[in-house]
Amino acid sequence: MKDKMVDVLDKPGNLTGLTEEEKLTKKAYDNSAAAWATYFNAAEGWKDELKKFHKLLPNGRILEIGAGTGRDAENLVNLGYDYTGTDISDELLKKAREKLPQQKFIQMSLYNLKFPEKFDGFWASAVLLHIPKNKVDRALQKIKSTQKKNAIGFISIKDGKGNEFSDREMGGINTTRFFEYWSRQDFEKVLKKNGYKVMNYDYRTVTKNTQWHMFIVRVL
Description:
The chain is an alpha/beta fold.
């Protein structure tokens, strides 16, 4: 049976407020959902970061922003969290629902996050990197509005300067996505400004052109 909270929240208004850059990125994920489910669903995911996150928050209600095809959702559920996932792409969420049919997945923009109860933590992997810098304060405040005081969260973004539209072929489909890049120092300033305390920081190099900043934060 579909969860009552999903019936209430899964409405068209959940996608209002997207910029043209974000609409283009949503379209890219919608069109390439099958490829993402195939090529980017490795079970290990953020393995080390999950261990550190779990140490700070052993249990509780978790909100994932940008659930995608359910890779991180599966790991969070396996750790015992009471899980709810959101994403702007319902095509990605269809794959997540196939993977984890018993879990709650809601099509919702992070600008429209609203729930009847607050969460003990959140997971936002590779999501805020698609948010224009002039809207990141609003995004972080919306995430914060869903969380209890002292909630624990995970955020990963890409290192770099400026922003760009990045073209990528996924499963034979050409996609275009918008990216904002950050330095560690600049993003830490934004986190502090919006009421987040950094509890743990890691940096990971994946390829020559792809480096990740990974923050575990506490909501103040």
